[in-house]
Structure formats: C-alpha cells, structure tokens
Known about the structure:
With about 130 residues, the protein is an alpha+beta fold. It is built from four helices and seven strands; from the N terminus they run ββββααββααβ. It has helices at about 45-65, 70-75, 95-100, 100-110; strands at about 5-10, 15-25, 30-35, 40-45, 80-85, 90, 115-125. Strands 1, 2, 3, 4 and 7 form a five-stranded antiparallel β-sheet that branches. The chain has a two-stranded antiparallel sheet with strand order 5-6. The longest helix has 21 residues, at about 45-65. The two termini are about 15 Å apart. The relative contact order is 0.25.
Amino acid sequence: MADIIKILHKGNSATISMDVPLILFEEDGIFYANLPSLDILGYGNNQEEAISSLDEMVNTYFQYTIENNTLSFELKKLGWKCKSKTHKLTAPSLTYNISRNSPLAEILNDKNFIRTEHQVQVPSQCLHI
C-alpha cells in the first residue's frame, strides 16, 4: 500500500503527495492510463496524452468531491484508509482493486500493459476518512 510521502502546502490547502499504481495499455490505437485506486481512466493518442488526460480527470474528481463535501466518503468507498492518530493515509492495494473491479482484472489478464507508479496530490480534507 502507498503511504504518505509528504504534505505540500499550496496556498491555504495542503495536499498529500502519494505514489499509487498506474496501469497503461493500448487498445485499437488508443492509449489508456488507469488509476485503479481512484477508479479513474484517461486516454489519448499516446501514453503522454493518456496520462495528461488522467491528471485532468483526477483534478476534476478532487475538485468535484471537495465542492460537494464528499471526498472522504468517496475515498473510503474506494478502500482508502486513514489512521486518525497519525494521519497516515493509505491507498487500496492493486490486489484489492482487482478483486472489486472485473474490468480491471480483464485488462490485467487479457491485455499487454505496463504497471508503474503515478504521483497524485490528495487534498488533506480526506484525513477524516
């Protein structure tokens, strides 16, 4: 599981910088970047465009869930955990995500893919998961 790397201060809001699993694959000439820990998918004409699309989707996800005061709820639903005393945030493992996400399991079983890590900036508002 990924743990807190560091907390960054951006203006008045702090973020937790974390490395989480990233699955890259290509299908029918389209490249996909899948971030299972947030259940978010980006796509493009190459890997760089797919990752850029993914980053836009991640930012939109965090912005939307913060505005609707649902960030903690949504992360908990996705399997994220936070130890309240230490504020140690952990993302769900790839194994956990595979067990709950049959399309992800199909990708890993049927496609050529690259597994790597991708850094996300998780808003600290989630620390009361």
